[in-house]
């Protein structure tokens, strides 16, 4: 298929590629890929640093089979997801617009820059959460800018709860005016118009770690936590809510738990709860003091070992 002899294992950055067994390995973790994805990766590895046209990839991998362009798009998406699942920020496959793809070695300087940016973004996000709570209490507008601002969406009105999926390359956000959850693209070279993913009334969309699903809060007829599969649109009820809140939801990095803020009754404070992705087990994980407004904005550390939250004290 490739025409170039490849070693049994290929090292891309810190990730070992085992083409024969269709898997990527980093330390004691591995991510298996489909045979077709392994063929595409083998072709890119055989011509590392060179741009391969989409036409050539179709010819050498699909060999005349009747497929649409989406087949290659999906394969590249799966490869990028596999790399990023083992090393956050890793994306050795470069898209050359209107031409094809090229395999590049991850740049260590770029990786460090990505980590520093991610850390700064996390701190900025925490600051924005605090500012958001302050604005709710004081009813005064707060504008915070990180980097060079530019318009990302074509939606109108107040938009909040932004959540970026590195694997899907999309931004999910809530729209207050029409009460829906929408998505938009972030690549300026390949702009994607805003489209509604979850119809009203809903809010608080959060991507799964693999970018294949979105968890959100449905508000009618009852408060419920739902999961929407991005590819096929299948929507399933995960857990009923006891009380509507700000809509903040968090997905654990290991794709095992979903966290949200809820309360047992109107007389008790909000607390953070968690439920398994399959919905078969749930528990309360925080204990605010009696009389407090409660705990909100759950957020997990990258290793999933720490839970951050905002605790609102007793109202004055």
The SSE string, one letter per element, is EEEEHEHHEEHEEEEEEEEEEEEEE
N-C termini distance? 72 Å
Oligomeric state of the chains? single chain
Radius of gyration: 22 Å
| Class inferred from helices and paired strands | alpha+beta
Overall mean pLDDT stands at 76
**Tally the helices: what do you get?**
4
**SS strand fraction:** 25-35%
Short description:
This protein is an alpha+beta fold and 316 residues long.
Give a verbal description of the structure.
This protein is α+β, with helices and mostly antiparallel strands. It is 22% helix and 33% strand. It is built from four helices and 21 strands. The strands form six sheets. It has a four-stranded antiparallel sheet, with helices on one face. Strands 8-9-10-11 form a four-stranded antiparallel sheet, with no helix packed on it. The longest helix is centred in the middle third of the chain and has 31 residues, at 108-138. The N and C termini lie far apart (72 Å).
What is this structure's SSE topology?
Elements: E1 9-12, E2 15-18, E3 23-26, E4 29-32, H1 35-46, E5 52-53, H2 54-62, H3 69-86, E6 93-96, E7 100-103, H4 108-138, E8 159-165, E9 170-175, E10 180-185, E11 195-198, E12 202-207, E13 213-218, E14 224-229, E15 235-240, E16 249-251, E17 257-262, E18 271-276, E19 282-284, E20 294-300, E21 307-312
Antiparallel strand pairs: 1-2, 2-3, 3-4, 5-7, 6-7, 8-9, 9-10, 10-11, 12-13, 13-14, 14-15, 16-17, 17-18, 18-19, 20-21
Helix pairs in contact: 1-2, 1-3
């Amino acid at each position: 298929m490739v025409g170039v002899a490849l070693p049994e294992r290929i090292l891309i950055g810190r990730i070992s590629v085992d083409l024969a067994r269709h898997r990527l390995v980093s330390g004691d973790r591995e991510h298996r890929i489909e045979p077709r994805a392994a063929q595409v990766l083998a072709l890119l590895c055989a011509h590392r640093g060179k741009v391969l046209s989409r036409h050539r990839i179709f010819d050498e991998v699909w060999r005349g089979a009747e497929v649409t362009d989406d087949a290659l798009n999906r394969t590249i998406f799966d490869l990028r997801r596999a790399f990023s699942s083992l090393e956050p920020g890793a994306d050795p496959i470069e898209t050359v617009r209107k031409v094809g793809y090229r395999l590049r070695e991850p740049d260590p300087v770029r990786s460090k820059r990505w980590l520093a940016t991610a850390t700064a973004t996390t701190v900025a996000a925490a600051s924005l959460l605090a500012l958001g709570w302050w604005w709710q209490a004081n009813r005064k507008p707060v504008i915070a800018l990180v980097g060079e601002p530019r318009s990302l969406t074509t939606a109108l009105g107040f938009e909040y709860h932004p959540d970026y999926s590195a694997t899907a390359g999309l931004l999910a956000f809530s729209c207050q005016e029409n009460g829906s959850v929408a998505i938009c693209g972030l690549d300026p070279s390949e702009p994607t118009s805003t489209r509604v993913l979850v119809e009203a009334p809903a809010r608080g969309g959060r991507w799964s770690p693999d970018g294949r699903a979105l968890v959100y809060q449905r508000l009618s007829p009852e408060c419920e936590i739902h999961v929407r599969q991005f590819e096929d649109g299948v929507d399933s009820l995960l857990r009923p809510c006891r009380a509507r809140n700000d809509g903040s939801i968090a997905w654990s990095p290991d794709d095992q738990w979903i966290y949200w803020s809820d309360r047992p009754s109107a007389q008790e404070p909000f607390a953070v709860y968690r439920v398994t992705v399959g919905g078969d087990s749930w528990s309360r994980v925080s204990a605010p003091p009696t009389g407090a407004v409660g705990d909100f904005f759950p957020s997990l550390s990258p290793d999933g070992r720490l839970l951050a939250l905002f605790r609102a004290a007793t109202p004055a």
